[in-house]
Specification:
The structure holds 2 protein chains of 2 kinds. Chain A is of the alpha+beta class. Chain A contains 4 helices and 8 strands; from the N terminus they run H-E-E-E-E-E-E-H-E-E-H-H. In chain A, strand 4 and strand 5 form a beta hairpin. Classes of the chains: A alpha+beta, B alpha+beta.
């Protein structure tokens, strides 16, 4: 089985299938410079909502659950993210605390990038910035779907016969 | 006017390119810019006035996601991804809007890295806002809690937050507030009557004075 464990993104056999990773060679070389690859064991929290955004995690392998939580501890899953997706993007870009919690639900491999490095990388590499815009648009579609199902779900379900 | 507004504080070159692809349009109050489910024609940059963003269930029930203010770009994620508009956008004031066609906008983003970065920032804000909405709709316990949160949020604008008794302009009807927090118009009216009776808020025309911030806060965190 092919894996995305290779040290350099340029040598990764899987990158063409992956959302963020399908970038020109020079952009990937620059990305290699700013990233730190690390394994993440199942159950680890990449970040928790309310925490300041220190950086992003590009998911190379495994899945991550993205959820929101109430003060009483009730949890609502927004989506499950897979390889090629970037975790913590919106908080890192807007410089606000994380709105969501990201938890590894498999043993994962991630590429970490510090916020400062990410911002510079995106400013210098247009292709990557476009990719990020695409990723965020997709995330937003999923989030709006969740708003619809959570906020209007009850009215969409056909009423049960009461008599 | 330019500072802090997306596209408005771009470098001159990008700004000139934007000028050449935008169509400046004026809309009356109550005009629909786009409807949820329509194929994306392009983006709408709000220059003046406010726009109500809502989603709709098949039975016609409406949920207001946000009241967009000048500087916000509407229809952004649909225009980027090519998927249908996710929301319906309706003006609630007479508005001034810059419209940019989808092809023009995508080319503009490819050519101007600064603009692309701005768009990424704005999408991030929208995403944060959507997550916030999911949390509030899905995890709040009562309509009272949600109304308290909404009033606190509104009162935190325009430097009112630091004041002992912050004021806010109620720009929406009870019906619309109900659609923002996912409850009925009757419930909102009842909650307001209760807040007034307990002297937590006081209405002066369309201005609402928050007289007891602490009580409102404790209502907002009771979940």
């Amino acid at each position: 089985m092919e894996t995305a464990m290779t040290q350099s993104c340029r040598d990764c056999a899987l990158r063409s299938d992956r959302l963020f990773c399908d970038l020109p060679a020079d952009t990937l070389a620059a990305f290699d410079e700013v990233k730190n690859s690390a394994p993440v064991t199942r159950g680890t929290l990449l970040f928790r909502e309310g925490q300041p955004a220190r950086g992003v995690f590009v998911l190379c392998e495994g899945r991550v659950r993205v959820s929101v939580c109430s003060e009483s501890g009730k949890r609502l899953t927004l989506r499950t993210a897979g390889p090629g997706e970037v975790m913590g993007l919106s908080a890192a870009l807007s410089g606000t605390p994380h709105e969501v919690t990201a938890e590894a639900i498999d043993n994962c491999q991630v590429a970490m990038v510090k916020r400062k490095d990410l911002l510079r990388f995106l400013r210098e590499h247009r292709e990557a910035c476009l990719q990020v815009v695409n990723l965020l648009s997709q995330d937003l579609h999923v989030a709006y779907d969740r708003v619809r199902s959570v906020g209007l779900g009850r009215s969409r379900r056909p009423r049960m016969m009461s008599a | 006017m330019r500072a802090d507004r997306i596209f408005c504080d771009l470098p001159t070159l990008a700004l000139q390119a934007f000028e050449s692809i935008k169509y400046a349009t004026a809309y009356p109050k109550g005009a629909v810019l786009f409807v949820e489910g329509q194929a994306p024609r392009g983006i709408f940059v709000l220059c003046k006035g406010r726009v109500k963003l809502s989603i709709c269930a098949t039975d016609g029930k409406t949920l207001i996601l946000k009241i967009a203010e000048p500087g916000e770009v509407l229809g952004l994620s649909a225009t980027v991804s090519g998927k249908p508009y996710e929301l319906t956008a309706e003006t609630i004031d007479p508005c001034q809007v810059n419209f940019v066609k989808r092809e023009d906008f995508l080319r503009f983003l490819r050519d101007h890295a600064d603009a692309c970065f701005k768009v990424a920032e704005q999408l991030s804000d929208k995403y944060n806002n959507a997550c916030h909405e999911v949390r509030s709709l899905g995890l709040s316990h009562s309509a009272g809690e949600k109304l308290a949160r909404l009033l606190l949020e509104w009162s935190s604008k325009n430097g009112e937050a630091a004041k002992q008794e912050p004021r806010l302009k109620l720009a929406l009807t009870h019906e619309e507030i109900a659609q923002m927090i996912g409850t009925s118009r009757e419930t909102v009216t009842r909650l307001f009557a209760d807040l007034k009776k307990r002297q937590i808020v006081q209405a002066k025309g369309s201005t609402l004075v928050i007289r007891n911030k602490i009580a409102l806060r404790s209502m907002a965190t009771s979940g």
